[in-house]
Amino acid sequence: MGSTMVEFKNPATATLLEAVKTRRTIYGLKAESPVSDDTIEAIVRDAVLHVPSSFNTQTSRVVLLLKEEHQKVWDIALEAMEGLVAAGALPKEAYESHTKPKLEGFRAAYGTALFFVDYDSLKDIKEKFAAYADKFDPFALESNAMSQYLVWTALASEGFGANLQHYSPLIDEQITKQWNIPASWKLDAQLVFGTPTSRPMEKTFAPIEDRFKVFGKSA
Question: What positions does the domain Nitroreductase occupy (predicted)?
Fold first, then answer.
């Protein structure tokens, strides 16, 4: 299934797809921003407003943390990991050689976007559509993932590097206390971003023929 040159009706489509292709996981980050904080806020706000959700349930919640507030997330994570070491649940050598440097790398970035899902807000629609009640939680998680991807891609387009982390439930309680997060908000992911200091790793692709099929295409 070879690639062919195509012409898009709207030039913005090519720009969008190029942004998709250039978004990568980047771990080397520093506490600088190529754009204003207002621009970052606008990206996250638009994602919260415009990413679709099933039945327009609007279950995604995001907390944007910049500079010193961002650093607090990773101070919490470091403290939590040190607690695991003290409890004997994490070998000290592994913590010192791998986990601690990684967390300190996140802390050295510019910001973190915390992505939550408010599952409690689904109560009414689960009652209204009882036959589909067990589907709404997964649908909400899918919507949240779309928000994560949109913010990540838009930040990358503005010159940021970023990586997506999942330290729940280890940090959840302290995150909730630190920023007075509503109890119904369940933390799903942490998007760390900053000015990149390293390049992404080489990306490999499984054969597209094994992952994509087309039927009914015009010759």
Answer: 20-194
